[in-house]
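Subgroup meeting minutes
Present: P.N., E.W., G.H.
Scribe: E.W.

1. P.N. recapped why we're keeping a running log of single-chain structure predictions: easier to compare across weeks, and new members can see raw inputs and outputs side by side.
2. G.H. added today's entry (445 aa).
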Amino acid sequence: MMDRQTISAIATAPGEGGIAIVRVSGSDARRIFEACFRPAKARAIESHRMMYGHAVDENGNALDEVMAVYYAAPKTYTREDMFEIQCHGGGVCARRVLERTIQAGARAAAPGEFTRRAFLNGRIDLSRAEAVMRLIGANSEVAARASLRQLEGGVSGFVRDASEQLKEFMALIEACTDFPDEVEETDAAQRVRDGVTQVIAAIEERCDERGAKLIREGASIVLAGRPNVGKSSLMNALLRQERAIVTSVPGTTRDVLTERITLGGITAELSDTAGQRNTDDPVEKIGVERARRAVETADVVLVVLDGSQELTNEDEALLAQAKNDPRFIVCVNKTDLPMQISVPGALEISAAEGTGVSELVRRMEARVRLEGGMEDRMTQQRHIDLARRAVAALNRAVEAIDVGLALDMVEIDLREALGALSEITGEDASEEVIDRVFQNFCVGK
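Output recorded in log:
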C-alpha cells in the first residue's frame, strides 16, 4: 500500500554546486508551497510556471533567494501535486529549505519514493522505473542510450506485444474448447504452436546476456604476455598517459593495474597484468596467478609478443590459447627494433612510437561492438531471468502440443509464461519484488 503523505527531499547530488533542488510531492503540496515560498511580485500561482522569489521560514523571513515552480496533478512526474524550489547550491541552503518543507507538513522521502509513486500511480511501469536509476548511473554512452530507450518503453512495449500474442493464443484455445464444432483442434494446435515458436525466438533475441553485460558493466580488456614484452608501454600508449611503470627489469608489474577507457561508446576496464612466467618469487607468483585468472574472465585479451626476440615457451602457450578463441588479439610489439619473428594474423605495433596503436583500438572496438538493435534489448538481469522463465514455459507448451496433449493443458504453460512477462512490467509483481527494485534508488528520485 502507498503512503499518501506528502513527501520532500533534496533531488540534487550533495556537495557544492550552482543550484540545489528541493522536491515535494503529495496532496498537501500546494499548501506547503504557499507556506514556504514568497514570490517577488504578488501573483496567483500558475501550474508549470517558474517564479522568482524567496524561500521563507514560518515567520516570513527569507531563507534563500530562489526560483520555484508548482506542478498541478496529473501532469507531473508522480501524477500528484508537486513543487520544486531551486536554491543556491551547497549543503546549508538546501538543508534549510528541506527542513522548512518538513516543518510545514511534509515528511522526508525514502530512496526512490518519487519514482515509486510514479509507478504506483500508473504513470510508468516497473521496467521504466528501473530505467530511471539505470540512466542516472549509466557509465557509457551506450548504457545511457539503452536506459533511455527502456525509459521510453523499449522493453515494456515488447513485453506488452508478446503478452498480447499469448492472450490471443489462450483465447483461441478457449474457443476450441467451448466451440469444438466451429474451431478444429488440430488446426488450432498448429496455429498456437507456430505462434508460440515465433514468440520464443523474439524473446531469445532480446536475451543476449553478453551484450547486456557490456551495456550494464562495460568490457574487460586484459594485456597478457611474458615479462618485458611491452605490456605496460602498450597500456600507456592506449591511455595516452604514463600510467604504468615501464623499466627494463623483468617482473616490474606484479599485480593487475586497471584503468578505464571508452571504445565505441562502451566503457572498458583495461588491465595490465604481471608477466606470465615460472618464478620462485612468492610476490611475483601471486601476480602471475592473478594474471592468468584475469585472462580467463576477460572479454578481450591482448596477447603482447616481443618481435625483437625469438618466441619462448610462454609465448607459444599464449598463442595456443589464442588460436581458437575470438576474444584474443595477438600483437607483435617493438617493430621499431629489428624483427626476429613473424606471426600470421598478428598486428605489428610499436608501443614506444605509437605505430599500429590506432589499428589496435579499431580491432578492440570491433570485439566489443554490439549488433544492431542491442539498445532495444533487455539489459537488466531481472528482466532476462523472467524472460528465460517465460521461454521455458513456452517450450513446455510446444512440447505438449508435439506429444498430443489436450490444448487446455497447453494453456497452463501459456499462463505461466504470461505471468513471468507481466512481472517484468510490474503488472504481476509482488510487493517484495517492488521493494527490491526501489531499494537501491537515490533519495530525491
